[in-house]
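Hi everyone, sorry if this is the wrong subforum. Our group has a chain we'd like a structural model of before ordering constructs, and none of us has done structure prediction before. Sequence below.
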Amino acid sequence: MKHIAVKGNRITITFKGMPNYIQWQNLMWNLPMISPAQASVITSAAKLTTYSPKTPIGTGPYKVAAGGFDPTQRVVYSKNPKWWAAAQHVSPSPKPKFIIDLVNTSNTNSLNAVLNGVEDLNNNYLPGVNSLVAQHKVSTYYPSKPYMLSANTAWLEPNTAHAPLSDPVFRRALAMAMNTNQVVSQDYSHLVRKASPTGLLPTWHKYINKAAVKKYGFKYGPSAAKKLLQKHGYKLVGGFFQTKGGQAINLDLSVPQGWSDWETARDMIVTSAASAGIKITVKVKDYNTWQSDRNTGNFDLVIDNNYQLSDNPWTYWNGIYHLPIISSGTGQTFANYERYSNPTAWKLVQKLDHTAPTNTKQIKSLNDKLQTILMQNLPLIPLWYNGVWAQFTSKYWTNWPSNNSPRKYVPAMWRGYLQMTGIDVITHLKKK
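Answer:
Right subforum, don't worry. Here is the predicted structure as tokens:
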């Protein structure tokens, strides 16, 4: 930044050159803000990185209640009686005096807490929640399928540095072998939606180029997948394909141990791939091992869902195409776990970042090119849209957000969603 000017409620920022428009816009959603009294003691970069107040103070309607802080059981927040947004009529003053954020040790415990009225809002994945909705025991954002908003895209993530996953033809055949409809219906009971071949979330539907999807997208078809591999020199021997050089293909696939929905999907993927002659073997890994292996490239295939709902699909493309690829140390720590190197796509991502939000024509053109590259090369294989898991009861509080009301808020307290209208859920609650 070159210059900052403040006049009333308007802040004008002048940049030294062409700014990263989208990163700046995204920062506006997620930048932590503190009071001037706190900021006055931060006089250097070193003090900023080591700043750790005993009593955190933010700009939100709640403060941490020190007496209720036990990270093994709960975190308690108490209402700020003098919240600026309520005073300025930006948002209602919240009715709950306290928020008790419980630590749930398992999905079973979470389900019991919901059914027994211990929890008003639950943000865990609860199998069979669709039955609870039908019995009027809980409510969800949608009253019927898909029940949940979409939070991120779950995909089959290939390590493109490993043969034959380095071959885009093989990756396309693998995509064609995925029976995602089975996962959506049998694993999730339609609590999730099948993803577009672009992987772009429903929130970003206006960016999806339907003509490009029709031309470059993939469809489930194990027989067609077999024909594609045979056409390109892969040999089908004993029911499974070998490489063009006659080597057996046996890919490993892992998900974090204990993630029951992903474990079920994993097993369905293994069976589905086998019907197309692609052999996949399950590797069981605890979360820390799974994450470390993904970051350092010690895998063939994983199911993953890194890049969340945001204000702009740039965050999605940046995650997929980000360069350079880091092969040393802890490896990839926030993007491009599939190790896909495409300098052309990366330049398009950077160009999108430097495109002014008012230049809608160029934004559309760049998004069209990026999704076309994805569908042509499939560095990731989009499967389904993972849900913003949220089920709530109205025993004590009402006015929860829903698709059938004007309150289009995201009912989640995880992964920064409080900034993306999650806090509005709480400020609009009504006591029963």
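For your construct planning: The chain has two domains: 62-148+389-431, 165-387. The CA atoms of residues 292 and 330 lie 7 Å apart.
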